[in-house]
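Supplementary notes for students who missed Thursday's class. We covered one full example, reproduced here. Read the sequence, then the structure, then the short commentary at the end.
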Amino acid sequence: MILTTDAHMTVVGEVRLQTLEAGGPVGSGVDELITGPVATMTFAKEIDNVVGKSNGAVVTALFFKPQPPRGVGFPCANTDTFSYVQVHVTSASLTLTPKDSQGKLLQDAGLGPCGPFTIPAK
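Structure (token representation):
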């Protein structure tokens, strides 16, 4: 699945060839971490501005978190925190750590930590 937004959000999940179509999800085997962009509102606030206060959190809970066919099933989704990803590389692995603007580990829509995510070297 490819998700494009002009508002700030952080999501982690598998890149899928299809997600909500008939036949169910078809994975690619490739994981993706998206964060950004900067200098804009959060995605949740963008939703709130269009459909009313507190609906951004509802969209995250009802669409981004549930597994298909009810939603897209992101293991990590935070649509209301400005964030960045700290990257640590060694000869053995690559570690991606989503952090909030205070440098703390990003929280998964209030459900606990989002990461860090370690990819072993091949």
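Commentary. The chain has two helices and six strands. The radius of gyration is 15 Å. If anything here is unclear, bring it to office hours.
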